[in-house]
Design brief:
Blueprint (H helix, E strand, L loop, with lengths): L11 H11 L6 E2 L16 H13 L12 H12 L8 E7 H16 L5 E5 L3 H10 L3 E5 L10 H8 L7 E5 L12 H14 L2 E6 L8 H14 L2 E7 L11 E8 L5 H15 L6 H10 L2 H33 L6 H4 L4 E3 L4 H11 L1 E2 L5 E3 L8 H11 L2
Parallel strand pairs: 1-10, 3-4, 3-5, 5-6, 6-7
Antiparallel strand pairs: 2-8, 7-8, 9-11
Helix pairs in contact: 2-10, 2-11, 3-10, 4-5, 7-8, 11-14, 13-14
Length: 394
């Protein structure tokens, strides 16, 4: 049996991480891996997480399963965080998942189960694992224009034109905020235009929100998601706690299926629980319980929100510093888009050859499509990166 297996494509980011580790140069910068790092290069445990873990250690009396959907209190807390009061709770089915990736995978499984002929429209570019999972599941994928490589903003006219080719029942995959890998986001007027289009054509929006709180703030980053959820007959939302709670290794996510037809909620909930059973039975609980404790405790929530805000403002400061330094070196404002992007990532919009040149010449490690992780920088390394970008002729 095993002799029939074929080598799978190497994960480019994991390969880049290994190259970075093997590089003996002291002055090297890792901008490839998609995790938040502080100024010292550490991905810290947030204060509220530590406090909640200590409290949990003192109070928890069992490690028994919580249920196929996870703890309902976790779903309630996350739904409130993401959707606020945009949708009535009795219209939302939700299950805990192993991370945001687990939520995305379960959503794609649900799409294939509900409508095997559905196509999924994805932004060009998008998070590579979106396309990888869709291909593995045999779901037809269609790219729509999204990133304008001239302005480094959203090619909204191209996006709308491409989505007009979608048929009723097709799915449109959207990034809730802090678009990965580009950093370029829809504004609220554009979100409304997307809502109008999907309603007009009978499309199903699926939103992947992995960075709430990293862009313009917790409420602001959820505004587009809330608009969609409140305005369409049906939608799917995959959420992650890895970034905004800093609990990457705890694999804490949530999948929501929303229907304005309240009678559909029970069937949707049963189906989501069934899919959990087929894939991993009971979802992990440790991270979900910590998130629940933080969101339901005023003091812990306030401390978490303050630390998250510090993280957000720190990344915005690095963006502005990099844009300013590039303007100083180049005598041009052509890099101003870096300060306008939001979240951990920006796409420089340059070639793989120039990205490789920066790696070879200056020890700058970024993904070949020119995505750079702003959180991999600090005040001392920003000038080094800026000089490498200009020297490479980007």
């Amino acid at each position: 049996m095993f002799e029939t297996l074929k080598p799978q494509p190497a994960d480019k980011i994991l390969a880049l991480m290994q190259m970075y580790r093997d590089d003996p140069r002291e002055q090297k910068i890792d901008l490839g891996v998609g995790v938040y790092k502080d100024a010292t290069g550490l991905t810290p445990v947030m204060r509220a997480i530590k406090a909640a873990e200590h409290k949990l250690w003192e109070e928890q009396t069992t490690k028994a399963y919580t249920g196929l959907a996870g703890d309902p209190a976790y779903a309630d807390a996350m739904i409130s965080l993401i959707l606020g009061t945009a949708v009535a709770r009795d219209k939302i089915a939700a299950v805990a998942t192993p991370g945001g990736t687990g939520a995305v995978r379960q959503a794609f499984e649900l799409i294939r189960m509900a409508n095997p002929s559905a196509r999924v429209f994805v932004s060009d570019p998008t998070w590579p694992n979106h396309v990888s999972i869709l291909k593995f599941l045999g779901i037809e994928t269609v790219a729509y224009r999204y990133f304008d490589r001239e302005t480094r903003g959203v090619d909204f006219d191209g996006m709308i034109e491409d989505l007009k080719s979608a048929k009723a029942g097709d799915v449109v995959l959207l990034h809730g905020c802090c678009h990965n890998p580009t950093g370029a986001n829809l504004n609220q007027t554009e979100w409304q235009a997307v809502v109008d289009l999907v309603n007009e054509r009978g499309l199903i929006p699926m939103i992947d929100i992995a960075y709430q709180g990293f862009g313009d703030g917790l409420e602001e980053d959820a505004a587009g998601v809330r608009l969609v959820a409140a305005s369409v007959p049906e939608c799917l939302i995959a959420a992650s706690c890895s970034k905004n709670f800093g609990i990457y290794r705890e694999r804490t996510g949530l999948l929501m299926a929303i229907s304005q037809d309240g009678a559909a909620q029970a069937q949707n909930q049963q189906t989501l629980a069934f899919l959990n059973r087929q894939n991993y039975s009971f979802p992990p609980d440790h991270g979900a319980r910590l998130v629940t404790m933080i969101l339901n405790d005023d003091a812990l929530r306030a401390d978490w929100m303050q630390e998250l805000e510090d993280v957000r403002l720190g990344m915005l400061g690095l963006r502005q510093q990099l844009a300013d330094e590039l303007q100083r070196l180049s005598g041009s404002d052509r890099f101003g888009f870096i300060a306008q992007h939001r979240g951990m990532f920006s796409l420089l919009g340059t070639t793989a050859e120039l990205v490789e040149k920066m790696r070879v010449d200056a020890g700058i490690y970024m993904v070949g499509d020119s995505r750079l992780n702003i959180a991999g920088l600090n005040a001392q390394t920003v000038p080094i990166l800026a000089k490498a970008i200009i020297d490479a002729g980007v």
